[in-house]
Amino acid sequence: MPKIKDISLVAVQFLLILAFFLDIHWFSISFMEHFLWFYLGMVGVVISVAALLQMNLHLSPFPTPKPNSKLITNGAYRLSRHPMYTGILIFMFSFSFWLGDGYKLCISLAILVLFYYKTNYEESLLESMFDDYKAYKSKTGRFYPKF
Prior knowledge:
Blueprint: H1 4-20, H2 35-55, H3 76-79, H4 83-99, H5 102-129, H6 133-139
């Protein structure tokens, strides 16, 4: 049974992503309209789908890892500890800029804050579950590669 914190984090995430797709315009950022943002958004979708497929049976919408899951550190997870979130963030920010939509940009910032908080919680659980998670964390960036 998922914890209340897990359910709450996923509910807020779902509501923010839903809010992103509402057609509300607070202010326009017209100088950002360019198809490069569209293509970058598509890269975000590809990253998220690749990470989703790689998780396969270990996938859960909740931050608490499934029992008997294993730590994945290759493929998309070699570049980022949370590539699904990375792809979602790239998509949301890129489309906010492409559409020149300040409302969507605000929602993107809110989901970034949520993902930061959610990953802190998730990583504390992963560290207690996997002995080698701290080493993986030290060499791999949260949302983007470490250089």
